[in-house]
Design goal:
Elements (H helix, E strand, L loop, with lengths): L18 E8 L10 E6 L1 E5 L9 E10 L9 E6 L7 E4 L4 E6 L6 E8 L8 E10 L8 E10 L2 E3 L2 E8 L4 E3 L5 E4 L4 E3 L2 E5 L8 E8 L2 E3 L6 E8 L2 E11 L8 E4 L3 E4 L5 E10 L2 H8 L5 E2 L28 E8 L3 E6 L1 E3 L6 E13 L2 E2 L9 E5 L4 E5 L4 E4 L14 E5 L3 E2 L4 E10 L6 E8 L18 E6 L2
Parallel strand pairs: 3-12, 14-25, 27-37
Antiparallel strand pairs: 1-2, 1-11, 2-4, 4-9, 5-8, 5-10, 6-9, 7-8, 10-11, 10-12, 13-16, 15-22, 16-21, 17-20, 17-23, 18-22, 19-20, 19-24, 23-25, 26-28, 28-35, 29-34, 30-33, 30-36, 31-35, 32-33, 36-37
Length: about 475
């Protein structure tokens, strides 16, 4: 029996940009309907200071708008962006749909932009503005400023949204998102292109690359500057981690490619994933990535960066923007996994309690894993045999009434719905044991178990070539 898998390491959880969705206090658009305007803007952003040559990269602040009631039409409106606190620290580049307004002098000086945006109907979002921000020499590291945004459209007025801007210096290592792979066949190579760029204003002297290949794929090479370990129990590994230390400096503006995504599809490949992440190297970062686990060093050729780059500059250790440091690629194979339900026969006199089980077995050849959505491999509907009552049930099962609706009392129910873990290895099984009290002897009483196909992100019929064995019987006194 296997337990539910939860991949909690930083790399496995893809970065999710945090947005402030600020609701509008709004009057109704019609007497019987109401609506609200929202501003979607990052809570915070990093602004790189100038480098040794006095240059700084431009960061883009993207602002979008939406509304609640998509049955309504919100007229075109105006987004107002107040960049007063940044005016002395950065050059502001306004897009064509924005008009800059400067008011007052000295300490009373204000700098805002009025940006027009189109009407909103059924669209999820409309474009508000893309504002370029470039630090000047006056932007001292550690300086914090706030950008404030409001919007008005017809009768709707949004509450101000704020973006905190912090000036920092350092390397900014980023990875390009590689496309997902489909149509992969067992035994064939799988190449995930990895592209690394330093978007910062300082050099990363060394780089720590973190890789994870799930069970259905494996690394084509095990490099001498990488170390490897399994995730999960030795008999049922979920995948392999690799930690690679790249000694070549990555200067600002340099883009390099790596062969670290060279994989091989195993016989068990089906729904797999490959994760890759990067950060400036430090001894602390390496120990944190190891997390106390034993790693084994590879013996293959050294993994190197492939590209010419800019000259080295002042080194720094901290990555100033980690939003693009981790990526994940889903790998979908042309393969099958035959799930089989196994029931059984038990016997007992009236008043006795017997143990009856329903087992889900994966006959392979592929493992089945829902490493993205976290869905169970199989959901089993079990109807209790006549004349018996459930006195104990598995934790993964919950009670239903005869029509299939949720039942508050969890023992003694006529039906149960059970879910397996989100990983089931090839040739592995998961069993649901029930304690049944025989209240009256019904010769040949049959309980029915069947797998359901109601999980949109992991549908059994998409990978199981034999649905006929996805049902079984539990027979009492048969």
């Amino acid at each position: 029996m296997t337990g539910r898998l939860t991949l909690t390491r930083r790399l496995i959880t893809p970065f999710l940009a945090v947005f402030a969705l600020v609701a509008a206090g709004a009057g109704p658009a019609h007497a019987d309907e109401s609506d609200a305007l929202w501003i979607a803007v990052p809570y915070e952003m990093t602004l790189l200071g100038t480098d040794a040559d006095g240059n700084a990269p431009t960061r883009t602040l993207t602002i979008e708008l939406s509304h609640d009631n998509t049955n309504m039409v919100v007229p075109a409106g105006t987004l107002t962006v107040d960049v007063t606190e940044l005016a002395d620290l950065a050059e502001i580049t306004w897009p064509a749909n924005c008009t800059e307004r400067i008011g007052g002098t000295g300490q009373d000086r204000t700098v805002t932009g009025d940006c027009s945006f189109p009407e909103l109907s059924t669209d999820s979002y409309v474009h508000g503005a893309e504002i370029g921000i470039t630090a000047t020499s006056a932007a001292v590291e550690g300086t914090v400023a706030t950008i404030r945004s409001t919007a008005v459209a017809g009768d709707l007025t949004a509450y101000p949204a704020e973006t905190t801007v912090t000036v920092l210096n350092g390397p900014d290592l980023g990875l390009v998102q590689a496309p997902n792979r489909t149509g992969v066949r067992p035994g064939t190579p799988v190449d995930v292109p990895i592209t690394l760029t330093n978007n910062g204003n300082r050099t990363a002297d060394r780089t720590l690359l973190t890789l994870f290949a799930s069970h259905g794929v494996d690394f084509a090479s095990r490099h001498e500057n990488c170390e490897y370990t399994h995730e999960g129990a030795p008999a049922t590994p979920v995948g392999t981690w690799a930690l690679c230390v790249l000694d070549e400096p990555v200067a600002p503006g340099r883009t390099s490619s790596l062969d670290a995504g060279a994989l091989r599809a195993k016989r068990s490949v089906l729904y797999d994933r490959f994760d890759y992440g990067v950060e400036p190297y430090s001894d602390e970062a390496l120990e944190q990535a190891r997390a106390g686990r034993p790693f084994v060093r590879g013996h293959g050729a050294e993994l190197d960066l492939r590209a010419a780059g800019a000259a080295s500059r002042v080194a720094a250790d901290d990555d100033v923007d980690t939003s693009d440091n981790n990526r994940s690629v889903l790998i979908k194979a042309v393969n099958t996994a035959d799930l089989k339900l196994i029931g059984g026969k038990v016997a007992g006199a009236a008043g006795e309690t017997v143990t009856a089980s329903v087992t889900v077995k994966n006959r392979g050849p592929a493992w089945v894993a829902s490493l993205g959505a976290g869905e169970p491999v199989a959901t089993v509907d079990f109807t209790v045999p006549r004349g018996t009552a459930v006195t104990a049930k598995p934790e993964e099962c919950y009670a239903l009434d005869a029509s299939g609706e949720w039942r508050e009392e969890q023992l003694g129910a006529p039906r149960y719905r059970c879910t397996t873990p989100n990983v089931l290895h090839e040739r592995a099984s998961h069993t649901f044991p029930f304690s049944l009290r025989v209240d009256r002897v019904v010769p040949g009483a049959r309980g029915k178990a069947v797998t359901l196909n109601d999980r949109p992100d992991l549908r059994i019929r998409d990978f199981d070539p034999n649905l006929a064995n996805n049902r079984a019987a539990v027979v009492v006194n048969g």
